[in-house]
């Protein structure tokens, strides 16, 4: 009888299972960029879940006691992600609370945060839907609301920057090589609509 012995890692790779987690570095950006060591002290999120992972963190709020972070919460049984709010202790980096702030039939990830004036916006990746939407974050109810479609395209990893009164959307797309091609769109309004940059005359 032939017997194959697999390590847990090998078995997970063959089954297509993968894991992510969130790490926190209690250092300034300047210290990180000027550090001569690649071994910065990373504090990993401690949580009890084995049926899911957390990834794509964007920090919403930091106090002396807690960190609030928006993340992709990926469930293995559904094989898709939601956008969730995690409250993490700064004392021991244990998960204090989690709350789903956005769930749809299609996979959600990369909850990019953009603040303008007194309003906080969140632009989660939802490339499977074929469009990209922007939401307002409600701090009282801790949900994403009032969605507006920014562009009809399967956008991946969207990032917004503002330069000289124009908003620029940097991203990749399922329509292109998402590991190689960086796309650029622009709009006069944060909420869009966005046009390809190369159409500017």
Overview of this structure, please?
By secondary structure, the chain is mainly beta. The chain has two domains: 1-103, no CATH class; 113-196, no CATH class. The chain has helices at residues 8-15, 29-33; strands at 23-24, 43-44, 52-62, 66-75, 80-89, 95-102, 109-116, 119-125, 132-138, 143-151, 155-163, 166-173, 183-187, 195-196. The strands form four sheets. It has a four-stranded antiparallel beta sheet, with no helix packed on it. Strands 7-8-9-10 form a four-stranded antiparallel beta sheet, with no helix packed on it. A hairpin with a 4-residue loop joins strand 9 and strand 10 (143-151). The longest helix has 8 residues, at 8-15. The chain is globular. Mean pLDDT is 88; it is low at 1-9.
- What is the strand arrangement across the widest sheet? 3-4-5-6
Query: What gap, in angstroms, lies between the N and C termini?
Result: 71 Å
What is the domain tally? Answer: 2
Beta-strand percentage?
over 45%
Order of helices and strands: HEHEEEEEEEEEEEEE
List low-confidence stretches. Answer: 1-9
For the structure shown, list the relevant keywords.
201 residues, mainly beta, 2 domains, four-stranded antiparallel β-sheet, 14 strands, disordered N terminus
Layout of helices and strands:
Blueprint lengths: L7 H8 L7 E2 L4 H5 L9 E2 L7 E11 L3 E10 L4 E10 L5 E8 L6 E8 L2 E7 L6 E7 L4 E9 L3 E9 L2 E8 L9 E5 L7 E2 L5
Antiparallel strand pairs: 1-2, 3-4, 4-5, 5-6, 7-8, 8-9, 9-10, 11-12, 12-13, 13-14
